[in-house]
Write a structure and sequence with these properties.
The complex is a heterodimer of chains A (435) and B (551).
Chain A lengths: L2 E11 L18 H9 L6 E6 L6 H5 L3 E2 L3 H4 L2 H18 L5 E6 L9 E2 L10 H12 L6 E5 L6 H6 L6 E8 L23 E6 L5 H19 L3 E6 L16 H11 L3 E4 L9 H13 L13 H4 L3 H19 L11 E10 L4 E10 L8 E7 L4 E7 L5 H12 L7 E6 L4 E6 L1
Parallel strand pairs in A: 1-2, 1-4, 3-5, 4-10, 6-7, 6-9, 7-8, 9-10, 14-15
Antiparallel strand pairs in A: 11-12, 12-13, 13-14, 15-16
Helix pairs in contact in A: 1-9, 4-5, 7-8, 7-11, 8-9
Chain B lengths: L1 E6 L3 E8 L2 E9 L4 H12 L8 E5 L2 H7 L6 E6 L15 E4 L2 E2 L5 E3 L3 H13 L4 E6 L7 H10 L5 E4 L9 H31 L6 E4 L5 E3 H6 L7 H13 L7 E6 L4 E7 L2 E2 L7 E2 L2 E2 L8 E3 L5 E6 L2 E8 L13 H7 L8 H15 L3 H28 L6 H5 L8 E6 L2 H12 L2 E3 L7 H8 L5 E7 L4 E4 L4 E4 L6 H14 L1 H4 L7 E13 L2 E13 L5 H4 L2
Parallel strand pairs in B: 1-4, 4-11, 5-6, 5-9, 9-10, 13-21, 21-22
Antiparallel strand pairs in B: 1-2, 2-3, 7-8, 11-12, 13-14, 14-15, 14-18, 16-17, 19-20, 23-24, 23-27, 24-25, 26-27
Classes of the chains: A alpha/beta (435), B alpha/beta (551).
Chain lengths: 435, 551
């Protein structure tokens, strides 16, 4: 009998009856071999590790993180209620003190879903971490500062987008360099909105980076940054497609590396994201992560075909990573000297492509540069589906002036919108006006 | 005529059934020699032995052997490969690790080191060990390593069991425990079967002998010789099957309370079938793959010791001998019943004097305290039962369909069996706010359950059409299948396999085959479907034999 050091909760929801299409990588079979490995290893018999049933995220939960167009019901399937609900359940277990940490091993994933949702991007409809985080802030006001460390191989552009302007949510993404992989973003210059400089930190790693490079970044960038930020809660978006066997990426991480990463990071909550090497990686990576969270020896967990010498990064890759780490840490330390632009408003325009659903969107975002609060913002969004909407976000701790501005935008739409949405975090209100 | 015998820790119960009726019951104390206990209770029945057509035994033999470690030293040869360090699961110094690794799809990564196996076999023989268990990780996906190790050592040892034949379920460390215990109790079981058979023959009883298993089913004594570990924890199974036999309304979800002297066992019947422990039962704190009933035990029985602790009245969990009303000295719930005039065969005065000490401490009337004793006991049972139901209902589910259509267990009635059943009935009814029934013969429900339980078996069928392979680990069957194999074809093959192997599995004719679990996945590799991964668990449904149920 093995006794774990920590009490670890596991929410396993493989959604065996959900797929994007019958031959899509996000398929029914995706977590089957992970379940086999976890069951065969007897992980659930380890004293301290307990499996819990997933929950269901409600429409209200989703509306705290998104503007779903035209509404939540049109944009999601019940699978998304469960995967986001599984994350919420993991958070509840941790915050109620039932467990010390928890792993939501759920699908479908979420980190490519942005605040405005016209469809699915990168296999994601809603951002399950964001829905969870907003649920946490709603129900546990003592949790003020949250850090997300996204270790999926793809840049979590959705999570970055949702928290771009949020000074209390630090989003760090480690991923394969966007010049070589979907979604093509996640560069160090993407550093957070005008009132949240440094709250987005991107670590684009060169292809073929293996454990040594990843763990170097953990030790020399991520842990020092977290030490300084002092989050109340740490979340790992635990994508597993950095693995050497992943069919759609070019990195060289191992299950042991993932386990060590989690041992170093000590996240409160892990959420599964991508990872499509369903036979050769996921069974071992997930077993490794669960054991690392529980504080059980994982040193014998490894892929049966592992040959460390074959996947070790060469010295040029390592040198590049060292220089990048230095640069990132410098950037982070300089963040407070970066002055927000002179007010009163700042505007940005972008195009967003929904690869999974083949939708194009243009956004014009306007944020009020506010001295007293994170600042209200509005997103004027026009999609190729024909929907043209305005989403207004009143952030946590919004000042009266920002709230007045939000009301004014809501009451006097300045374009031919299909609908205007008002999301008020402190009041937990979500108002929709169809025009 | 059918004979059912339940050998419990303290009592041995027997019941004889003929033509849908109980024609005799008997009870005797269980002694150290179980064969003798069986003979005593059979004598006490006072029946004519010639008409006996079936004998079923529910025994604590293997349970006790395991708990008290009364078995010969047993060796284990284990191949694991990467994963959790297997040595963390080794129970004794007679566990040996050999090289070899198989993955989750049953592919071999590291072959078994045969020289190492021979060397270990030599060492085990040198230690004078006669029984060896062979286990490899993922052997239920590919039994080749276990089979090979066995073939190397089979000349050297009397008893060998292989992990994949214990159960088709995944769980390496439970497979280790199960195989170890099975090998360890094999000689114990076969000696016992031999002695019982000889003793019964001397009485002129030649009927086939069956054993009750932890899952509430029975199997033939030859199957029990091979898989004796399945008889562990058959005691609670006997009671629950007794409840099934005595339940008149099988469509009603029933909470069963088996109230004994020290503990109350709690289980649930859904559609006349007791619910099972999903991953296997635990014995002595060790997890196994043995399929068994989900039963929870609470330390509250008729003889529970009553005391005042920190100003609060406590009932159980210990027992300090029989109730005062029955000649003991410590106050118990049965004494409370005696005081309240609900236990006529007990000595009321003795009961009153035992409880009066408590009443004095609390500064209250004896009658008042007696009522509270019962209410505390009933409350203990109720709290445990509600937690148990909650636990059953919080089992994780893995499909969206099950998330959106939860089938929650909600008992609609309570059935009480065991000694104080009648006394407790009104209190339980009040506490649970449910109809509470006390069936006739509630006192011998366990022996009745053993007598009447159908034979059961379960097999696992796995088809991986990408590899063109179909296996049934429990029966060591591996067949080639076409890429086009359908789920229906797999089911049909599984059903045929169960029937073909009925004798080996210990089944009699009275079986109903049902599908327990079914899963089918398209295997997608690089944006195209390359095969199907299909998984089935087929069982014969637990239940009560026709000789009783068709009355």
């Amino acid at each position: 009998m093995i006794k774990a050091k920590n009490r670890t909760g596991l929410i396993f929801f493989p959604a065996y009856d959900w797929e994007i299409t019958p031959s899509h990588p996000e398929r029914k079979e995706r977590l089957l071999y992970t379940q086999d490995q976890v069951m065969e290893e007897g992980v659930l018999d380890i004293r301290g590790i307990r499996e819990f049933k997933a929950g269901l995220a409600s429409q209200e939960d989703i509306n705290r993180a998104h503007f779903c167009v035209p509404d939540v019901a049109s944009r999601i399937t019940p699978s998304h209620n469960v995967s986001a609900g599984g994350c919420i359940e993991a958070a509840r277990l941790v915050l109620e003190g039932v467990v010390d940490n928890a792993f939501a091993l759920v699908r479908p994933p979420g980190h490519h879903a942005m605040r405005v949702v016209h469809g699915a991007r990168g296999f994601c409809n809603i951002n399950i971490e964001a829905v969870m985080i907003e649920w946490i802030r709603r129900h546990y006001p003592r949790i003020k500062k949250i850090a997300i460390v996204d270790t999926d191989c793809h840049h979590g552009d959705g999570t970055q987008d949702v928290y771009w302007h949020d000074p209390n949510v630090l989003y760090i993404s480690i991923h394969q360099d966007g010049r070589t992989l979907y979604p093509g973003s996640g560069f160090p210059e993407e550093f957070g909105g005008p009132r949240a400089q440094g709250m987005t930190l991107n670590v684009p790693l060169p292809p073929k980076t293996s454990d040594a490079g990843m763990l170097y970044v953990m030790e020399h960038v991520i842990l020092p940054v977290l030490d300084e930020f002092k989050p109340d809660l740490v979340i790992n978006s635990a994508g597993q497609d950095n693995h050497y066997s992943d069919p759609i990426t070019n990195m060289s991480f191992t299950a042991g590396g993932y386990a060590r990463l989690n041992e170093m990071l000590r996240p409160d909550i892990c959420v599964l994201e991508g990872g499509y090497s369903i036979e050769a990686a996921l069974p071992y990576v997930n077993t490794g992560i669960i054991l690392a969270l529980a504080g059980v020896d994982y040193s014998y967990v490894r892929e049966p075909d592992l040959d460390p010498s074959r996947i070790k990064e060469d010295s040029r890759v390592m040198d590049y990573i060292k220089r990048l780490s230095e640069k990132l840490l410098q950037l982070w330390h300089d963040r407070s000297s970066m002055q927000p632009p002179d007010g009163p408003y700042m505007e940005r325009t972008r195009s967003i492509f929904y690869d999974t659903d083949g939708i194009s969107e243009t956004q014009k975002e306007v944020i009020r540069i506010c001295e007293d609060c994170p600042g209200v913002f509005r997103i004027n969004s026009h999609a190729s589906t024909g929907y043209h909407i305005l989403g207004i976000h009143v952030p946590w701790g919004a000042c009266d002036e920002c709230r007045d501005q939000a009301q004014n935008w809501f009451d006097y739409p300045d374009d031919y919108f299909y609908a205007v949405y008002l999301q008020d975090m402190d009041r937990d209100a979500y108002t929709v006006k169809v025009l | 005529m059918i004979l059912g015998i339940d050998i419990g820790g303290t009592h041995t119960d027997a019941v004889c059934i003929d033509d849908h009726k109980i024609i005799a019951t008997a009870k005797s104390a269980t002694g150290d020699d179980l064969v003798r206990s069986i003979l005593e209770v059979v004598h006490a029945l006072g029946i004519d032995y010639s008409g006996i057509s079936r004998i079923v035994l529910s025994t604590t033999l293997s349970t006790n052997a395991i708990i008290e470690k009364k078995y010969a030293p047993t060796g284990m040869i284990v191949s694991a490969g990467p994963g959790i360090d297997p040595r963390l699961y080794f129970l004794t110094d007679d566990f040996y690790l050999v090289e070899g690794a198989i993955d989750h799809r049953g592919r071999e990564y590291i072959p078994v080191n045969q020289e190492q196996v021979k060397q270990i076999a030599g060492e085990l023989k040198g230690k004078g060990i006669a029984g060896v268990g062979v286990v490899s990780k993922f052997s239920v996906r590919n039994s080749q390593h276990e089979t090979m190790i066995r073939s190397i050592i089979e000349e050297d040892f009397e008893n060998i069991s292989m992990g994949h034949t214990m159960s088709g379920s995944l769980n390496f460390h439970r497979r280790l425990n199960t195989t170890y215990f099975n090998t360890a109790v094999m000689p114990v079981q076969s000696r016992f079967v031999g002695s019982v058979r000889r003793a019964l023959r001397e009485l002129g009883i030649h009927a086939p002998m069956l054993f009750l298993k932890a899952d509430g089913g029975t199997y033939s004594s030859s199957a029990a010789d091979r898989l004796p570990v399945e008889t562990i924890l058959s005691g609670p199974a006997a009671s629950m099957m007794g409840a099934v036999a005595l339940c008149r309304d099988l469509n009603t979800t029933t909470l069963v309370l088996d109230v004994g002297g020290t503990t109350t066992d709690i289980g649930i019947l859904i559609d006349g079938v007791p619910i099972l422990e999903p991953r296997g039962v635990n014995i002595n704190g060790l997890e196994t793959l043995v399929r068994g009933l989900k039963v929870v035990s609470v330390g509250a029985g008729g003889d529970s010791y009553v005391q005042v602790k920190g100003g609060t009245l406590c009932v159980g969990p210990q027992r300090h001998g029989p109730p005062a009303a029955m000649g003991g000295s410590a106050p118990t719930p049965m004494d409370a019943f005696a005081i309240l005039g609900k236990f006529d065969s007990g000595d009321r005065d003795r009961a009153r004097s035992a409880v009066s000490g408590i009443a004095q401490t609390l500064g209250r009337e004896v009658d008042d305290v007696s009522r509270e004793i019962i209410s505390v006991m009933v409350d203990n049972i109720r709290t445990t039962a509600l937690d148990f139901i909650d636990e059953v209902n919080s089992n994780p589910v893995y499909t969206i369909y099950e998330m959106l259509h939860p089938e929650l267990v909600k008992p609609e009635q309570v059935m009480i069996i065991g000694g104080p059943a009648r006394q407790l009935q009104p209190y339980i009814e009040e506490a649970f706010q449910l109809k509470c029934i006390v069936p006739d013969h509630a006192m011998v429900a366990n022996a009745l359950g053993a007598a009447l339980a159908r034979t059961t078996a379960q097999i696992t069928m796995l088809a991986d059409t990408q590899q063109r392979r179909m296996i049934c680990p429990e029966l060591d069957i591996e067949e080639e299948v076409p890429l086009s194999l359908s789920f229906e074809e797999l089911k049909a093959r599984g059903t045929a396999i169960i029937k073909e192997n009925a004798a080996y599995l210990g089944l009699t004719d009275d079986v109903e085959i049902s599908i327990l679990e079914e899963q089918s996945f398209n295997m997608v590799r690089g944006f195209s479907t390359t095969g199907k991964n299909m998984r089935l668990k087929i069982q014969t449904r637990p239940g009560i034999i026709r000789e009783w149920s068709s009355r």
